[in-house]
Design brief:
globular, TIM Barrel
Length: about 550
């Protein structure tokens, strides 16, 4: 390494990372830092050495819950590593990003202003107040928009679905969809080196739910939505010819999401939607290769039984007959962990899905999950506190295998003190339930591997929206990888969640610092299968930096 400390520390760290990663062929972040601390560069460049040691200590603290991940992500070493990932020669594949949650405030602000100043301004302002509160209007700055579309620190899934409303107000024309697609492609390419996008979007937004109804949506056609998005991405392809995109229309699972004025049931409306998709593809052959799949989205709490999957089954079969793949948001939220696993099971068996988006129920350790439940419940019982009705804990306790001792569940629910014998019975009920759920989980995972069904990992979304994980370290990406599952990585709604594709990569590295190798992560995120080629590209990065003077051989 050069001792030319006149270079900025960010540049010196970036060059140092490129040299070390290329020489070690992309080890885990733990091993990389151990070697970094013992390198000559860390000795000769005091500032660089201090930052490496500091980051290594911070990572160790994070592993024992003594430091939040935000401190890691804001550290100069992490920022340099992010810059290194941004400069990797192969672009990344964003496997899961939603249209409404990925429009930047800078893009939204002038369009929202124009909407509120237009003839439907009063109606739209009232709808915004209904969703975001009485102080949400007027909207005078980009910061005002950002405040509305960013998820709060303690907000969860139900609130997340609501705050996506603001972008929906704008997406009422073909031109709006065209502009949005170009904006997303340009922003992801520029900011995160993303060269392939699988865009999730709602094709039909008619609903009986007044809170979700959008003024002006009546005139929006399926052609406007799909062709608008297609034209926006194609326009960006003229700027970056290697850019790839898949249009993945989504259908809400919930029974109320259909046009009740025109159709007698959810099933009838969905089958009409399927017909329109097929007609659109046949009349616009340029869409082939881009409109190749569908997805299902929405709140899946209470959506897990076989009967719940019947309304969409016939329509999905027809799409599959026309060559469409079926992907589905499942195992993301649940009324109980067993129900979350069951929803994935039925999606595979009844809908024959090709990919599970989120799949969190398949990555939650049942023994740990139920032990934490027991600890919380016993602590509350010791303090004579009732288990709050309607919470996940209340639902899980009601579904434990009580073996005739339901009276214990009732005592927990009202905060009545348990005897030592009853506490033991509670622990046994938890133990047997956890064992059964674990067997079920592994059975579903093994069948997914056999069928080649992939799971898309979305670390920030899974942590922040569900509340099922206490920490990012609980995210199961590496466990899935060791099981041999096909994996992809996505951001879900990067603007709403305040994240980026590169940030998600860093989270995955830091949450499994011992076992997840950088090379493996690069293979997953780029879609490349040749390890030797990844190694070659790492050396090319090293040479490039050396040629620019950051490295001296």
């Amino acid at each position: 390494m050069s001792n030319a400390t006149t270079l900025r520390i960010e540049d010196r760290l970036g060059a140092f990372i490129a040299e070390l990663v290329s020489e070690t062929n992309g080890l885990s972040i733990h091993d990389t830092l151990a070697l970094a601390c013992q390198s000559q560069a860390a000795t000769t460049d005091a500032e660089l050495g201090r930052l490496v040691e500091e980051f290594r200590a911070l990572l160790a603290n994070f592993r024992v819950d003594a430091a939040p991940i935000e401190q890691l992500l804001a550290h100069p070493f992490s920022l340099a590593l992010e810059q290194f990932l941004r400069g990797f020669p192969l672009p990344y594949r964003e496997e899961h990003i939603h249209l409404t949650g990925s429009l930047a405030p800078e893009f939204l602000f002038p369009r929202i202003q124009a909407l509120l100043d237009g003839p439907a301004g009063d109606v739209c302002a009232n709808k915004i107040r209904e969703v975001y509160g009485p102080d949400s209007v007027p909207i005078r700055t980009v910061a005002d928009v950002e405040r509305l579309v960013r998820l709060g620190e303690h907000d969860r899934f139900d609130r997340y679905l609501r705050i996506l409303y603001l972008p929906k107000l704008l997406l009422t024309s073909r031109e709006a969809h065209r502009d949005a697609a170009h904006h997303i492609a340009s922003r992801l390419w520029r900011q995160s080196n993303v060269g392939a996008v699988r865009l999730k979007f709602t094709l039909f937004r008619n609903t009986t739910d007044p809170a979700e109804q959008v003024p002006g949506i009546e005139s929006l056609s399926i052609d406007d939505v799909v062709l608008g998005l297609y034209e926006g991405f194609r326009a960006f392809q003229r700027e970056v010819p290697t850019f790839e995109f898949i249009l993945s229309p989504c259908f809400r699972k919930e029974p109320g999401f259909y046009d009740s004025a025109r159709f007698p049931s959810r099933r009838a409306h969905f089958e009409d939607q399927v017909r329109q998709i097929i007609d659109l593809l046949e009349s616009n052959p340029e869409l082939r290769g881009h409109l190749t799949e569908v997805d299902t989205v929405g709140n899946e709490r209470g959506f897990y039984r076989k009967a719940h999957f019947q309304e969409l089954r016939v329509g999905l079969r027809k799409l599959q007959a026309y060559g469409f793949q079926v992907r589905s948001h499942h195992g993301e939220t649940w009324g109980s962990l067993r129900q979350g696993i069951q929803s994935v099971d039925n999606a595979m068996n009844i809908w024959h899905v090709d990919a599970v988006e989120h799949g969190l129920a398949l990555g939650t350790n049942p023994n740990y999950y139920f032990q934490r439940l027991t600890q919380r419940a016993l602590q509350a019982n010791a303090e004579n506190r009732a288990i709050t009705p309607g919470t996940l804990d209340a639902s899980e306790i009601s579904e434990l295998d009580w073996n005739g001792r339901d009276d214990i569940a009732k005592k927990l629910s009202v905060g009545q003190h348990l005897s030592p014998a009853e506490r033991t019975k509670f622990i046994k009920a938890k133990f047997h339930t956890a064992s059964e759920v674990e067997h079920y989980q592994h059975d579903v995972l093994n069948r997914m591997i056999d069928k080649g069904v992939s799971i898309i990992a979305l670390p920030s979304s899974n942590k922040r929206l569900t509340g099922a994980f206490e920490d990012y370290k609980d995210h199961p990406f590496s466990w899935w990888e060791k099981k041999g599952l096909k994996l992809g990585v996505g951001t879900d709604n990067d603007v709403t969640l305040g994240t980026s594709y590169l940030r998600e990569m860093l989270i995955l590295l830091y949450t499994d610092p011992l076992d997840l190798k950088l090379t493996k992560l690069l293979l997953v995120t780029t879609g490349e299968t040749r390890r030797s080629y990844i190694s070659h590209l790492l050396w090319q990065m090293r040479k490039k930096l050396a040629g620019e003077g950051a490295l001296k051989q």
